[in-house]
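Here we describe the complex-level prediction in full. Unlike the single-chain runs in Section 2.1, the two entities below were treated as one system.
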Amino acid sequence: MDPKDKSDMTPQAKVPEMPKTRTTPKANAVTAGAFNRAPAIHEKKGVFPAHITPGGGWLSGLAHEQIHALATHVLAHHTDQGLRTLAFTSALAGEGKTTLSLALSEKLARAGKRILVIDLDTHRATLSGEAGLDGIEGAMESSKEDGATNRLHAYPTDRPGVFIMPVGKLDLSTIGGVPLLDPARVQALVQRALEEFDLVLLDCPPLMPVADTHVIADIADRTVLVVRAHSTPKQIVEQALREFDSGKLFAAILNRAQPQFIPYFREVYGYYRRPSAK
Amino acid sequence: MSGFGVILGHYVRRALAYRWLVLVPAVLVFALVTLNVTVQPDIYESYAVLMPPISRPTAGSNNANREVESTMFRSATERLLSARALTQVAEKLDPYPLIRETKGMEGVVEKLRENIRVELNPNAGSITVIASHSQGDRPAELAADIVNTLTGEFIKDQREALDDNAAKAEQFLLQQKARQRLELERARSAVEEFKAKHPGELPDDVETNKLEIERATQSITDNRQNQRLFQAESRRLQGELALREAEMNRLKENGDAAGAAAVTASERLLDSLKAEMATLLVSYTEDHPTVLKRKAYMTAVEAQTEQLRQQAHGGSAMDQIALLNFTMEEIQKQYERSVKDAASIDEVITNLHRRIKDAEERNLKASSLEVQYASLNRDIKDLEERYASVETRLAEAQYHRKYGEYDSTTPILIEQSGFVSAVPARPDRLLTSFVGIIVGFGIGIGLAIARYKLNATYEQAEDLRALMPGAVLVTIPEVRTSGVRVGRAIAGVLGGLLLAGIFAGTVAILGIQLGWWGDPSMIRALINLR
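The structure predicted for the assembly as a whole is:
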């Protein structure tokens, strides 16, 4: 879809109705007109990682199980410690932040939570691109206005309970390029989102090239660090972590690991093959 | 799982991850090496073994022997590869006619020098002469011809040289023998002169002198004993003379013993008659017949007594006195002889003492002459040994020269003549290919190890745990889409097939070359076509 076409899309006045079995009481309380809706999202396939499913083979099952475990931890912290904002970052770009945040959001939504995934990577806007939401209102626009009157440009997805907020309209051709993230505005955006959603996942830019993540990490309750196996140099990860508040580090995800380096993967193999065989 | 199992699993996982890194170099190096040895020409080798006929130890240390052998081997090598020897081979066999035409005989000799090598085997005590020959249009047997001609000429030259040397050695030893003989005779003369100059004073005579001293001492003791015996005899003879003299006086005075006894008996009878007469005269008168009768009887006894007395001093006593005189003269002679003998023993003892003293003096001189005499004798001994040695060497030299055998350390014989095997000596295709695949695996493993060591990325969750203690660790496996999976599988299969094909093709070429299957000449024909 051409981004220009999407920029002309009129935000929906109503949040799409969620299936009753998946809708939480809070989701039903969302006020009309608070969300934009991009109908194309429903039609677009492949936004969510299709390979992280229980029926996609043993490796997919294993990946799904790992996300399931992460979601369990998140829900436990959500319940016990009030964890509501989780930032996804990595040392370098392309390590799988967006994919894993979407996978986690789907998993959390299956637990009955309303999840908003905000694309805050103003540099690459991967989530926005993959969701087909380039060039339309998103985080930038949602944080321009003040306080509770902000309109959340969140778009529903084909996964009930999962909403995506693209990065918004960015004019990278102008002098100055990528806008600076104002901590106060991001804070206000998150606060506003938390009024409507149970959990907000922030898809951040990588730590090393960009400083935005440090701002976002301060605002988020916890941070998830994604490390791509066999790719990201240890030195860079260590350097990134030195400049990062490790106290907020919630989880580390080693992504795209070769199966033979996963402990007991052969035993796990048998376990996850059987369901798919049926 | 045990610690070893964990470590093993760790490396097995990495080996699996880097399997292509190992397999590709292994197969490629194997293929390249095999192809390389395939296009190389067959080189046939022939070798001959030269060694001394007998390996007997020579005098001196092992190091010295080894040095001698080493020198001999070096000399043999130089002679084998000398221009003269190689020229002989080139003239006899004409092994490289093309080179001869273009570069002349010098080029041929140079080519031979390239293709002939000499290996010394000090442990085996042998020299191996190896000639290699690339077949070309000449038969493989040329290698054997070269090596046999070269070694044959070498042996021939060596025999001539050795024969010449043996003749010279014999001549030299003859001169040595004459000189040693002269020196020995001189030394012996010197000793004889020395002996003549110092009779009994040589260390050799010391024992003789000691024996003489012992004997003289014993003789003195014996003589003293004899002297005492002579003295006792003279004393006995002196007593005997005195007895004889008394006997003679008695005889002179009383006559012989029987007469004297008769005179004594008669005198005793007369005395008793006188006593009876005195008794009678008491009772009777002198004229009484009894008295007269007695007187008459007394007169008769007196006459008889006188007659007996005369008879006692008569012939018998005289004879006895004459006998006693004779006996006494003999005893006197014996006595005098004994006295003389006893006196003469003193002189003998004095002589013996003088001999002892002389012997002792000679021994004293012998000790002072000992060094000089020993030196002379040693000279003789040394010269005798030298002479014997020269004689032995001369005899050996004459024998060896006569029968064509030489000193065992110098001559070298052909232990094994050269021949050509049906299989080319080089290249050893099987071994080279085997080494190629091993080296390829080594390179692959080295690359894998290098990649593993240089790998600075995270491979498993454990790597992250130390960095982020307390954080939830999640490992998401690489899940490829079906398209990617199929693509990678196809690529893997194609790659595997390619590698397997390369490997199988290489093995096929190698097998044909080695004659396992097919005709090896087919490969050669293909190479020639190329």
